[in-house]
Fold:
Amino acid sequence: MIKFDSTGNTCGTNFANCSLGSSQFIKLIDLGGIEQPYAVLQSTTGEYIVAGEITVSGKKDAFFARFDNLGTLIGSIEKFGLPAGDENATGIVETSDGFALSGYTQGSYDAGLEAWLIKTDPYGKTCPIGADGTCVDSSFPQKMFVKKFGKPGLNFNESAFSVKQSLDQGYILSGNTNSFGAGNSDFFVVKTDSFGNTCDYLAGNGKCNVGTSSLQFANIFGGSYKDSALFVEKTSDGGYILSGEQFEISGAQHLWLVKIDSMGQEIWNKPIAQSSSGLEIKQAYDGGYIIAARGFFSSDKYLLIKTDSLGNSQSICCGDAKKIYPEECDDGGQVNGDGCSAACLVERCGNGRIDSGAGETCDDDNIISGDGCSGVCQTESATGVCGDVWEAKFGDTDSEVGFSVEQVFSQESGGVPVGYIVAGTNRRAVSGDDMWLIKTDSGGVSCGSGDAVCADNVGGVDRFVSVFGGNAADEGRVAVPYYSTAGSKLLLGHGFLGNYFTGTNFDLRLIMVDTVGLQLYYKDLGGSKEEKGFGLRQSGANLLAIGSTNTFNSSNNNRDMWYVKAFASGGKFTVCDDATSGPYYPASPSYDCYKNGTWAKRLDGVSGNDVGYSFGSTSFSSVVGSGNNSSGTNTDVFAVLTDSQGGKDSQKQVGGTGFDAPWSSLRSSDGGMVFVGETTSFGAQGTDAWLFKFDSLGNFCPYSGNGNCTGAGQFAQRFGGAGNDYGYSVVQASDGGYIFVGKTGSFGADENVFVVKTDASGQSCSDGSALCTNGSLQFVRVYGGAYPDAGYSIKETKDAAGASTGYVITGSYGNITDSDLWLLKLDRYGNGPGTCGFCGNSVLETGSGEECDDGLAGGNADLCTDGTATGHPDGVLTTACRMTFCGDKIVQALNGRGIVEECDDGMHCASGTACTLDAQCAGSGDQKCIARSGGGCDGVCKAQLSQLKIGKIVLEPKVLAVGTDAGQFLAEIDSTEVGTAKFLITVFDAGPGKEVLANSLEGHSLFLGYQAVDLNPLIDFSLLQEGSYKVEVTVKHETNPNFSDSKQEFFTVSIERSANASAVPEIDLLLLPLVLLAALGLMKWKN
Structure:
């Protein structure tokens, strides 16, 4: 062990014991075996802590050793392992109550190699390790446990090289794995809770993610050969940076950095420094990174590498065919229009950037037509507008997020809207996270768009951006308008709930802010461990806060649901009898209090962690809370109904065998309780959003294996697609239905904001597996860009008269390197910025291809088609809202083209194309569509019979005076179809039977019903000689040639050239009745 002073000097130059006190020394220390130390740190008590491996008689054990400031061993070392195998410790971190070691175990507990996490007390002691290589002991003040991570089996290997404690008191380990991933080994990162528990990565093939307040995840990163994450470090944005090495199959090697967010998802990765591996990494004060690396050159040098915040350590040259972040592409050239621009940016419609070199004339960050910029990024002519829709983003180069939004009125009842109050967190890279409070006007505009503090008043509306907190990881969670309790209940200010980091733990902090964003007073609620708040409501002159406590827990070291009622008056918050601004510590053993109408209550579940997330009501006598109860191997929904003193009246627990959690709740208008959250217990595809409702008596319908059910005043409904989908906030809409917001991985370019509007029974236009809209105010919509976005809070907005004007959402909008707080305003139909073209919003938008929009929905029994279809980027059928027509498969008494329909089977043209307005078989108009073969529906939507009947065919007259008369045919046809008939006429010489006019004379006629039909044209016999002729007439159905019914008739015609040709002609007596009948029919038809 070598100790250097602040200038890098020590007492000697060779490996011999020496000492100059505590500032410089060299110690050769024999711990009783062959020692290999891997990690050293100085504890907060000034001791030096060393971890590594010790080999005795061929057996390797992990060890932990403590030394004083002179390098002298304190007591004896602690060893971890069993005789059968080998163990080591490669990383160590000091925790709030001891130390945590990372390493691996091989052979003692499993045939393969598994990553190891050991949690000790301040003296390096842990619980007795069981036969499976794990243990947990929470009976001591300090947590002690041993956990393994890996896939059991001889040929499966996982190692942990580095460990850090996370802000939520959990742990994150980095190492490698050959059990999962594509390569020989890959980066392996695991995030646990404070007891070393993580999500089921075995089921996820090395990957999993559980988004609780104590995040758990596992993920793998790597290429096709060999990669190892040798070090992990926390970053100022709440995420992590991984440093290690990456090998190619060719043998080439480089240092590899992977930046991940707080949920373990990759933000960027960077190969740098060829022929090297990163041994340790730290974030510098400027947001960049400093890396200690080993270089594999001929001299085997060590490297010190400094990068910027994106991991760049070398010059970036667009056009060198080397894609270096932040280049989006580099194809070796600098030419626009080839997919990679001259600036090495991807040319793609919908990226929010006008790529003029690729021919774009606009780009509005989506590929939706009808909003002024088409789906191929060409400027469109002006169209109709949606309702009141807009968006606003707040942030700079750090990451910002909004967690709650409320509409603000000048007074609680009968006031005018004066904007929105938004609570969130400003994740500063240098100075730490801050609680963030933003007040906007009704158009989402504030005094600034960045994170600078400001305040102004425009048109009588106060606007401000305010920051609260210290220089650590503070969180802003919820803000509500605070109104007076007397008279007209004017707006007095805003209640603000955040989580204040004391340096060692979090306290729940209540802040009262005036109307211009200045802090009036505050109160911290917490103890020696972690307390956090997630929900806030005003109740009279009080503020109700809900969250969790780790300090005030008499039965175990887990978290309990904690809810507090604080009286706001006289320039202070009062809880029970405590009116100080300092932290409030409830007395043991119950940790509960009730005094002067205020209270603090702790609710302990069966076992595990219980967390409260929201209040469902502001009623003084009934407060509905929700949370999750982690008991054993699963997490369930946990709902509580309290009395007026915060005592528990009843509770409900709902869930399956997986992770089920509610993130938001409300008391419905019928007295029931509605929740939205997430579930992994039901369905076959990862995580789904889950919306469910108890009736007013707390009854819940029995949900089936798919998590869905319906009952009287009860329902449960999953919403989700092929990816992971979440619901974070729910409200009841004015129409009695419900709307929730969250995020989805099933649609869009990345995770995007997920918005679902249902009816009062929890049903929408789809189950979330497809995007949809309809005119009944139900929709499943997605908003966002090319990078991860999320919606965390939603509220219905109203005008001064109380009528709904839509919805407002806050969350985060992802950029390449950070995120902004996002405020998004939708209209009542779910339309937002860039999503006009919605059929059914009562706005005629011709740019979206609409011919009409009557706002009606349902069975399309009107003149304008409604509905949705798949295939459009956001699920909206832009060719809906057309006038109905014959061939649209919708039977209309009078369709939009003015045709009375008896049927509509969606007939097709002879070519097989749809017979619609845009694809006629011939000519224009619906009547040109040719009916399909067989019976059913004809070309103008009239019902067909199964056959065509042709009656008699009559020729009149049959004695002709040449030059003065011509023959006319009549036919009797029985049909209900409008169509055409073809008449073929052949004239023979009556004597020898010679054809005189063979197949050369044709006639066509429309027919409808049973009638005599005039044959056109008239047949002129003037060219024939005087005499007798035989005439053959054939009638066939031409529109539908598959009808077999046809008719032939033969006639004898006499032609005279005498002077008395006009005399009464000779008539065949047998045909006289038919002639008369035909004549009468012709007269009737002509009349």
